[in-house]
Design goal:
It is a single chain. This protein is an alpha/beta fold. The chain has ten helices and 13 strands. Strands 4-3-2-1-5-6-8-11 form an eight-stranded mixed beta sheet, with helices on both faces. Strands 9-10-12 form a three-stranded mixed beta sheet.
Length: 285
């Protein structure tokens, strides 16, 4: 097994590489700035890659995509969020074909924000896509992943909020809490699908040899209040400030603020039928 991680320098990619290396699995990272022995150089802009190195790949994990919550969603940013996912997956498929690599496994990540928002419904993998911006991104993203669908072990892992003190959403929520300005956004009762980084890594590893098709990568649906309080507890801080009103969140973050104030609940029944994650509680963060 020779695993190639596209998007390997990110939060999930670094943890996955560490995990696979600990299992003595040869792992490479596709990067624009190749400087390590385990790097494979590529240029999405020039649509080029070290095809000789790529040809040795047996399993491809595609984690590419600009951070959804890193910047305000201007029209320019929206185009970047879409292109960094759809165009990159399409390019990867073309490069794999050019290299002559015989892939045995492909794991592509997408997001659970495929349905819009709802305070009542619990969405599963067969539900229709929503009509909002993120739903459109996920739909086009997954269509690009499906270029690899003929590979024997094929999985699209729809991730909820990935939590770990090592970074990601946890770090963004923890920052104001550490400074004494932590507060729960919105009403606090809005549900957020989430999963621990450790479980994400294990699921990706196992799904390289166990095809799942489309599956929700979620441990639980917890309220925003529960998540914020759990992180505050982990950081040994107390939340003194009142909740941030929804209108203020929207003024600060624009359309992206819906991720913090609207409710979404998704089913993990399919995942649990195939795997047994750690069932980590928020108190174990």
């Amino acid at each position: 097994m020779q695993v190639l991680i596209a998007g390997g320098s990110g939060f999930i990619g670094r943890a996955l590489q560490h995990h696979l290396n600990a299992q003595n699995i040869e792992t490479r990272v596709l990067t624009r700035n190749a400087s390590k022995p385990y790097h494979i150089a590529w240029s999405p802009k020039d649509k080029s890659c070290d095809l000789e190195q790529l040809s040795k790949t047996t399993h491809l994990v595609n984690l590419t995509g600009a951070g959804i919550a890193d910047q305000r969603w201007t029209q320019r940013r929206k185009k970047e969020l879409l292109a960094s996912r759809v165009d990159t997956a399409t390019l990867l498929h073309s490069l794999v074909q050019q290299s002559g690599a015989t892939l045995q496994g492909y794991v592509g990540v997408s997001g659970v924000n495929a349905f819009g928002f709802s305070a009542e419904k619990v969405f599963n993998e067969t539900d229709a896509f929503g009509q909002d911006f993120l739903s459109s991104v996920v739909q086009q993203w997954e269509s690009a992943h499906r270029l690899f669908e003929s590979i024997p072990c094929f999985t699209i892992l729809r991730l909820g909020m990935v939590l770990s003190p090592e970074g990601g959403a946890y770090a963004k929520i923890a920052k104001p809490i550490k400074l004494g300005f932590g507060a729960v956004p919105g009403k606090g009762s809005q549900l957020v699908p989430w999963i621990h980084l450790n479980d994400v890594v294990k699921i990706i590893h196992q799904s390289m040899e166990t095809p799942l098709g489309l599956v929700h990568g979620v441990a639980q649906n917890s309220t925003m209040k529960e998540i914020t309080q759990a992180i505050a507890h982990r950081e040994q801080r107390t939340l003194y400030l009142p909740n941030i009103p929804t209108i203020i969140v929207r003024l600060i973050f624009g359309e992206m603020g819906k991720l913090l104030t609207e409710s979404l609940s998704v089913s993990n029944t399919k995942l649990l039928a195939s795997f047994k994650p750690n069932h980590l509680q928020l108190s174990n963060l």
